[in-house]
Write the structure tokens for this entry.
Amino acid sequence: MYAELQLDNQVCFRLYTAARLVTQAYAPMLTELGITYPQYLVLMVLWEKDCQPVNDIARRLLLETNTVTPLLQRMEKLGIISRKRGEQDKRQHLVSLTVKGRDMEQKAYSLIPAGMSEQLASCPLKLEDYQRLVQELDSIINTFKK
Amino acid sequence: MYAELQLDNQVCFRLYTAARLVTQAYAPMLTELGITYPQYLVLMVLWEKDCQPVNDIARRLLLETNTVTPLLQRMEKLGIISRKRGEQDKRQHLVSLTVKGRDMEQKAYSLIPAGMSEQLASCPLKLEDYQRLVQELDSIINTFKK
DNA sequence: ATAAATAATATCGCGCGCGATATATTGTTA
DNA sequence: TAACAATATATCGCGCGCGATATTATTTAT
């Protein structure tokens, strides 16, 4: 019985579980939008700045391009983004929002903050707790990112 | 530009990213053990209490049985667990460690705490920060678990 | 005791993540 | 400028997670 190997002492298990459960909490709203959580992340990146190469999106999300490329292909099939080859650098694929993808921002804004805050009503954490949590998570992310 | 839809304001994106990156940090040690992170979670559950039905393992990890069943099937092929039908309840599949699975605890103990603390050396978080983080994550997990 | 409801596990399909590898384009260097 | 290295993206294979559904065994109700 090594304390270091007990499930109840694992930070990583809690991160893994919390991430899964919170992502699941997004599902009802995202289903209404017709997308998944990783697709929603891509949309947030593009809502902030449209027309970005695959690499920039991947770097922003700290994902590999071999994860992002198929994600973008599925989003293209859904008609929410389009891809075109870069003009000065023909290796790049520039990813842009379609009208449908751009219009989804309004609907997301009307669904997601309200939907999440409703579900978070019973969570005992206060604003300052979330702020500290964000800083702690950023410390961990910065420690492990390449 | 809705602040609520900006990537930098998302707790969930940080949970998702931190979970991925910390799980990746386990990979070198787990590769040496020949297992994945979810398989390591199952082993921790069984090291604590051997011979459990699929449901108990799934509940402990807050996973669905349709995730755990194939995970256990792969672990059985690896020779680290065995499954047998319950005697009083023949619907159950009781999962037990093999000798190989039990012996992996020693090796895990020699590899993982040291390997992780080495990688965490550059992380600015202190013991009390981790303790608070654990409590905050537990609040979130308890809010969203069924 | 038999039918219906419930429970435990398994199967299927799909979307990630990611290591490994391939392809095409650009940059660099001899 | 020809060879080589580096870069951007894509493809492939596999292991999750999970919604939906199926199968088998147990429990409950009639």
